[in-house]
Amino acid sequence: MTYEVNGWIKFCEEDSFENGCLPETAFCTTGTDRFTGLTINDVLKALNEFTGNDDAEAVLLNSCDELGRVDIQIMETAEGYPADKRDLAEFRRSERRLWLSCYSFYVKQVERQPISLVA
Predict the structure, then answer these.
(1) pTM of the model
(2) Which of 32, 66, 85, 119 is the most buried (most CB within 10 A)?
(3) Rounded Cα distance, 71 and 34, in Å
């Protein structure tokens, strides 16, 4: 038995340190990347690496009460890279624009079994 994720959804909004997220800047994108693991922790590790997340508190399991849904929320630069400490410091001083990005994944448990092929 393995666990897998097929694809993802990313929702972004520009975040203003003083005013919060700016809804008029919101956009959504998707990807077809596939992640697998022998354990759920293996899959979560792969998802964190993919998003560049290093904060366990940014990972929401069964998000929005949907079984198997994993949301990872991170701050990103305009180019879509995870914000580093310098970016965040500049953001807090209103010297840099950053986006709050929420990646959503759906983890499925997969049991592969051979089947009998009959013509």
Answers:
(1) 0.89
(2) 66
(3) 16
